[in-house]
Amino acid sequence: MMDEAAFAELQAPAGWRVVDLVSDLHLQASDSATLALWERYLADTPADALFILGDLFEVWVGDDAANEPGSFESHCAGVLAAAARQRPIFFLHGNRDFLVGPGFAARAGLTLLAEPTVLAFAGRRWLLSHGDLLCLEDTDYLAFRAQVRSPGWQSAFLARPLAERRTVARQIRTQSEARKADPRAVWADVDSGAARDWLRRADAPVLIHGHTHRPAEHDLGDGQARWVLSDWDAAAQPPRAEVLRLTADGPQRMALSAST
What we know:
Elements: E1 8-11, E2 19-22, H1 32-44, E3 49-52, H2 72-84, E4 89-91, H3 102-108, E5 110-112, E6 117-121, E7 124-129, H4 139-148, H5 151-158, H6 162-181, H7 192-202, E8 206-209, E9 216-221, E10 224-228, E11 242-247, E12 250-255
Parallel strand pairs: 1-6, 2-3, 3-4, 4-5, 7-8, 8-10
Antiparallel strand pairs: 2-11, 6-7, 9-10, 11-12
């Protein structure tokens, strides 16, 4: 799963008082409600820093998509760049947007994070992850992940014409939606033993992650816990859009509404 190399660490500046964390927004051109809510949140949040723990986008086919004038990706780059001028924004890759690269990060004002990363903030250590690497029972996905994260696969895919990559992305989304609609589908969750091992290695009491779309707080014993972020869908009934806010008082879930 991962070797015993030390996890990356980020020391929060002394001036930070509020840190926001989100994941699994799955932004896409066809979901204008979630995009609008995201833009309002970015304009209004009091956070000193924002951490995006993966799957900000439903799919990412390459940084060059943001170079197309008028494209959805270009619009998102502008929105993020404006927000990044107000506060630092950190991005950790998810399973849908693992192809976000340094080009888009620079254009959007994002700082890319390693998977996982320890955040030292407010006198505590928080282990941040997308979460997919810890779903050990999802062996088919983990094999697919290993393939598409390899430099060879990514180079070959990104060498294909942009229009062709967009077509492949649409096909993958169609397959994903069909799988989600299958009542026989079984969705793996984060393995508790693996989560405890990561926390031990990170010398951190709390793991914060997304990916599973199962927001909850899990007591792992021995003072360890994992907090799961929600996904976002502003058009759902009821709408789903939540921020996990860290302060000196600890973590707090902030539910956003369509009028936020």
